[in-house]
Amino acid sequence: MPQHRLALCREDFLSWFERYTERTIKEFRMFTREDRILVAISGGKDSLALWHVLRKLGYSADGFYLHLGIGEYSERSREKVEKFAQKLGAKAIILDLREELAGIPELKDLTSREACSVCGLVKRYNFNKVAREQDYSVVATGHNLDDEASSLLANVINWNIKYLGRKYPVLEEEEGFVRKVKPFCKFTEKETALYALLNNIDFIEEECPFSEDASSIFYKEILNSIEERFPGTKLRFYLEYLRKIYPRFREKEKRDLQPCKICGEPSPSEVCPVCRLRERVVNLKGTGRSSTG
Amino acid sequence: MPLKVLYRGKEIEIPEKKLKAKELLKRLGLSPLSSLVVKNGEVISEEDYVEEGDNIRVINAISGGA
Question: CA–CA separation, B56 vs B43, rounded Å?
Answer without folding.
Answer: 10
